[in-house]
Amino acid sequence: MAGFFSYKVHCSPLRLAALRLPDSRMRAIFLLPIYVLSFAATAAQTLPATDATRVSAPTLDTVLVSGEQPGPGLWKVMRRDSDHVLWILGTQAPLPKTISWRSNEVEKIIASAQEVLTDARAELKVGFFRSVFLLPAVLGAKKNAGGKTLKDILPPDLYARWLPLKQRYLGKYDDVERLRPILAANELYGKAIGKSGMTNKNALWPVIEKIAKQHKVPVKEIDVPIPVDNARQAIDDFKSTAGQLDIDCLATTIARLETDLDAMRARANAWAVGDLEKLKSLPYPDQRAVCLNTLAANANLREKLDAAKQRIRSEWLDAAETALWNNASTFAVLPVTELVSSDGRLAMMRKKGYLVEEPQ
Questions:
Q1: Sorting pLDDT into bands at 50, 70 and 90, what band is 148?
Q2: Which terminus, N or C, of the chain has the lesser number of Cβ atoms within 10 Å?
Q3: Is 339 within 8 Å of 90 (Cβ atoms)?
Q4: In terms of pLDDT, which residue wins out, 201 or 86?
Q5: What stretches of the chain show up as alpha helix (H) in DSSP?
C-alpha cells in the first residue's frame, strides 16, 4: 500500500501469501489499527489548510535530478573516552525515481565496520487463521458506514477540492469513494508521489544490504514486536475512530498536496546531491501527525501506538550504544528528520554525552 502507513508482517512466506489473496489494500487495512509510523512523523508540523493556500491542482516547477548522485555525507557519533565510531546515513522519502545512489563512501565505511544497524521498526505478529476468519470484518472496516461515499460525508468545499486531485492522481479508481477518509488519503498521497516523479520506495537499503553481504558484515535488524492478541477487537477499535478526525486526515493530506509537492521535490533533490543546509532549511509539513490522531482517538489503539513509539526509540538507542561500546566501527541508518530535529534520537545521544559531528 503506497502511502504514509508503514508496518512489517511477522509470519511465514506461506502465511503472507495467504494474506495477500483478497488484495494488498485489504492486508494493509487488517494491519492498519496497529501500524506504526516512522518516529519522525510525530515531531513534524502539519500544514494548515487556509483559503490562501488552496488551489485546484499543484504546479511543479522544480526539476528532479537524475542519474548517479552521492546523497548526503555521514553523521559521526563517538564516545568521549574511546575512538569507537558510529556512522549514520540519513535517509529521505520521497526521493526522485530517476536517481542512482552512488555509494562509494558508504561501501568503504561498511567494509571496515563490525556491524550494520537498521532503523527500528514495528513487527506485527498476526495469527494467520484468525485473520482468515475475520476477512469480512476487515473488508467492512475499510469502508464508510451505511454504504456512504466521500461525497456523502465530506463538507461540500472539501469534496470540491478532493475531486480534481482524485482525477489527476487516481483516475478511474472510483472504489476510493467508498473508503474511509483516512484510507482515501493514503491512496491519494501514494499515487500523487509516484505521478510527481518521486518514490517512497526504500532504494537505499537493498544497496546497503548487498554491500554488507559482500563484505560479510552482520546486519542487526531492530524489530519491535507488537502482538495482536485480539484481532477482532483491533478491527472494532479502528472502526470506532471514524468521524471528524478521519475527515481532518484527508483534509490535511489534500492541503499538503495542493501546496507542498514542489517543496517535496526540492527536498528530494537536496538529499540526492548532498545539500544538507538546504535540506535543513526547507520546511517539512507532514500530514501524518493529524492522521495518527485519528487512530489515537481510541484508547486501546493510542496505548499500543504510544508503547510502540517509545520502544522503537529506546531499542534503537540501546542498540546504538551497545554498538559504540563493542565495535570499533558501526554503520547505521536513520531518517534525516531524526538527525536534524531537536528532539530526535541523535539529539538524545548528544544529551547522553556522545560527540556528534555533522557531515561537511
A1: very high
A2: C
A3: yes
A4: 86
A5: 13-20, 24-31, 40-43, 104-111, 128-133, 135-141, 150-153, 156-169, 181-195, 204-214, 231-240, 244-259, 261-273, 276-281, 288-296, 299-326, 336-340, 345-351
Give the three cell numbers for residue 3: 502511502
pTM (two decimals): 0.77
Q: Are 222 and 120 within 8 A, CB to CB?
A: yes
pLDDT tens, position by position, 77-92? 999 889 999 999 988 8
Q: Does residue 134 or residue 67 have the better pLDDT?
A: 67
Q: 219-234 b/e with 16+ CB inside 10 Å = b?
A: eeebebebebeebeeb
For residue 8, give the amino acid letter: K
3-state secondary structure 72-100: CCCEEEECCCCCCEEEEEEECCCEECCEE
* pLDDT at site 124: 62
What average pLDDT score do residues 308-317 get? Answer: 89
Question: Which pLDDT tens digit goes with each residue over 19-54?
Answer: 333 344 444 444 444 333 332 233 333 333 333 334
Q: In sequence order, which residues have a C-beta less than 8 Å from that of residue 326 and are 6 or more positions away?
A: 114
Neighbours of 180 (CB within 10 A): 28
Count Cα neighbours of 159 within 13 Å in the Cβ-side half-sphere: 10
Q: What is the three-class DSSP state of 198? A: strand
Give the strand pairing for 9-10 and 121-125.
parallel
C-alpha cell at 167: 482525477
Q: Cα separation of 178 and 337, whole Å?
A: 34
**DSSP labels, 300-355:** HHHHHHHHHHHHHHHHHHHHHHHHHHH-SEEEEEEEHHHHHSTTSHHHHHHHTT-E
Q: End-to-end alpha-carbon separation of the chain, Å?
A: 36
